[in-house]
Write a structure and sequence with these properties.
CATH architecture of the largest domain in chain B: 3-Layer(aba) Sandwich
Number of helices of chain A: 9
Strand content of chain B: 35-45%
Order of helices and strands of chain A: EEEEEEHEHEHHEHEEEEEHEHEHH
Oligomer: heterodimer
Largest interface: A-B, 38 and 32 residues
CATH topology of the largest domain in chain B: Rossmann fold
CATH class of chain A: Alpha Beta
Number of domains of chain A: 1
Strand order of the largest sheet of chain B: 4-3-7-1-2-6-5
Number of helices of chain B: 6
Largest sheet of chain B: 7 strands, antiparallel
Order of helices and strands of chain B: EEHEEEEHEEHEHEEHEHEEEE
Radius of gyration of chain A: 18 Å
CATH superfamily of the largest domain in chain B: Nucleotide-binding domain of ferredoxin-NADP reductase (FNR) module
CATH superfamily of chain A: Aldolase class I
Strand order of the largest sheet of chain A: 3-16-15-10-9-8-7-4
CATH topology of chain A: TIM Barrel
Shape of chain A: globular
Number of strands of chain A: 16
Distance between the termini of chain B: 31 Å
Chain lengths: 303, 259
């Protein structure tokens, strides 16, 4: 039994595995299979200030070793989240990361202020959703805007603040540095890569939104590369994600520099994926004489 | 409540061209399953699971039966599995058909026919099954419906078996001359839309089973949205429900079939 505890932005997680926002709801569905207390934490479904209906279907398209989604942040809004979901989540003996997304800088700040007096362990500011017209990736693809929204949220809450970055940029390290300078405590990356599929019979895009976010094993090498580049460019910790589906992937991501990992699309294929990854990391540590999982963070030896 | 695991295929037949009929030994799933629910099957080499309706449940034998059509390379992979091999299943999923007291008409269009076998069997002699297929070679499950005691009305698009014409025409004729308490339907969207309109006209309750591109299958990712009308408020508002959890079976009155 290795020590799997990790610390991210001052918050201790019992292990480094966190289901990613939007792939795990509020945990209710998967609780039928295993206790949520096994997880390091849960990054819950992205919450907006007001209810959002999401995008027109179809919202899902399969791709080679991955998938596109264009859900569009469908959620019941912050009041419902705080009143109906959060109290239940806070009894689950796991860290709760509240993922927030706003259409404007003011909305993001208001959301953070609303969550500030609650029991959430950390706020993850989503400036990278590719499926919404306002806010979302529009915040995360420009250094000045990314810094402005981070600063506004930073001022609105004392909670540890993690900012989730978009890979759909020319230089993710520039965005990362801007967000760090604006007061983020941690970064999470990568959100999905913008993609498109066309049904050649109907000549229509498979997604009604035409384009959507690519996730799954197909994006894993891109995610490892970006986590490695970003951890070399900033001094705040990084939570790595993008296509992780095995313990070996999670270990690779941590060697690239991630302090913790999020697991997303893999859960759709195997609902037990987060638990199998945790157990697999533990076994790997034992086999390799690693006493504490944190020892492996950033230990890649580049050529 | 659902389970995930590897379960052995105990029976497999090809029931029509490109249509496979498998029975899987999975007692814990069979115990929980209800007519109209579905399973998420893993096809080797493909990232997302394939949602397949549960066609039959034998709680005593601990088996579920699924009849599916090869539509692409994923379902083709599933069709390659043989008796004795294991299949990775998450099931039972979703919300099935509502059984009531009275006379039912179960309508199936093509590969939309397997999901209605379970509910039709619960009614037995009190169910009339109207099913439609492209041609005689595509006809499936007629003997199963008869074995369950149901009256069957078979339609084909080209007249090579049964009545020459669509299920909607046969359904209307049935409704005109028979007292009907509920209609269950599964099939292509235009067919469901026509049946929903007919049910409304005749004032008969109607449940439809829908399909949508799906990822998690359990209600977490919100991918498989369908447009519905929430009418419990004064002014009906459009809301997106989810086929995997709120459905696949919906009250026909709440479904917006366009778009």
């Amino acid at each position: 039994m290795a020590d799997l505890r990790v610390t991210l932005a001052g918050v201790e997680f019992k292990n480094p595995v966190i289901p990613a926002s939007g792939t795990y709801g509020y945990g209710r569905e998967y609780e039928a299979l295993y206790p949520l207390s096994k997880l390091g934490g849960i990054s819950v479904k992205g919450t907006t200030l007001h209810e959002r209906t999401g995008n027109l279907p179809p919202r899902i398209a399969e791709t080679p070793m991955g998938m596109l989604n264009s859900v569009g942040l469908q959620n019941g809004g912050s009041d419902k989240f705080i009143r109906y979901e959060l109290p239940n989540l806070l009894t689950k003996d796991t860290r709760i990361v509240a993922n927030i997304a706003g259409s404007t800088v003011e909305e993001c700040a208001e959301l953070a202020a609303k969550l500030d007096p609650t029991g959430v362990d950390m706020i993850e500011l989503n400036i990278s959703c590719p499926n919404v017209k306002q806010g979302g990736a529009a915040f995360g693809t420009d250094c000045t805007v990314a810094a402005a929204v981070t600063k506004a949220v930073r001022q609105a809450t004392k909670k540890p603040l993690m900012v989730k970055l978009s890979p759909n940029v020319t230089s993710i390290t520039d965005i990362a540095k801007s967000v760090e300078a604006a007061g983020a405590d941690a970064l999470s990356l990568i959100n999905t890569l913008l993609g498109m599929r066309i049904d050649i019979r109907t000549r229509r895009p498979v997604l009604h939104n035409n384009v959507g976010g690519l996730s799954g094993p197909a994006v894993f090498p891109v995610a490892v590369r970006m986590v490695w580049q970003v951890t070399n460019a900033v001094s705040i910790p990084v939570c790595g994600m993008g296509g992780i589906s095995s313990a070996e992937d999670a270990i690779e991501m941590m060697m690239a520099g991630a302090q913790a990992v999020q697991v997303g699309a893999a859960i759709f294929r195997d609902p037990y994926a987060p638990v199998k990854i945790i157990d697999g990391m533990d076994e790997w540590c034992d086999r390799n004489g690693v006493k504490s999982i944190s020892e492996i963070v950033g230990t890649v030896k580049p050529w | 409540m659902f389970k995930q695991g590897l379960y052995p295929i105990v029976k497999k037949t090809a029931s029509a061209k490109g249509i496979f009929d498998i029975t899987v030994l999975c007692p814990e799933i069979a115990e929980l399953a209800e007519p109209g629910q579905f399973a998420q099957l893993l096809a080797e080499g493909f990232f997302l699971r394939r949602p397949i309706s549960i066609c039959g449940i034998d709680k005593a034998a601990g088996t579920i039966r699924m009849v599916f059509e090869v539509r692409g390379s994923g379902t083709e992979k599933l069709a390659e599995l043989n008796v004795g091999e294991n299949i990775d299943i998450i099931a039972p999923l979703g919300h099935g058909f509502t059984k009531i007291d009275g006379k039912a008409v179960c309508v199936g269009g093509g590969i939309g026919t397997p999901p209605i076998l379970g509910i039709a069997s619960l009614y037995g002699r009190d169910a009339t099954v109207v099913s439609g297929f492209r041609n005689a070679a595509a006809v499936i499950l007629q003997e199963d419906f008869k074995a369950a005691g149901c009256e069957t009305v078979l339609c084909t698009d080209d007249g090579s078996a049964g009545i020459h014409g669509f299920v909607t025409t046969a359904l209307e004729q049935h409704l005109l001359s028979n007292k009907t308490d509920i209609i269950y339907a599964c099939g292509p969207t235009p067919m469901l839309k026509a049946i929903a309109a007919m049910a409304k006209k005749f004032g008969v309750r109607c449940e439809v089973s829908l399909e949508q591109r799906m990822a998690c299958g359990v209600g977490a990712c919100l991918g498989c949205a369908c447009r519905t009308l929430q009418s419990d408020t004064k002014a009906p508002v459009e809301v997106y429900k989810h086929v995997c959890k709120d459905g696949p079976v919906f009250d026909a009155r709440e479904v917006i079939f366009d778009g």
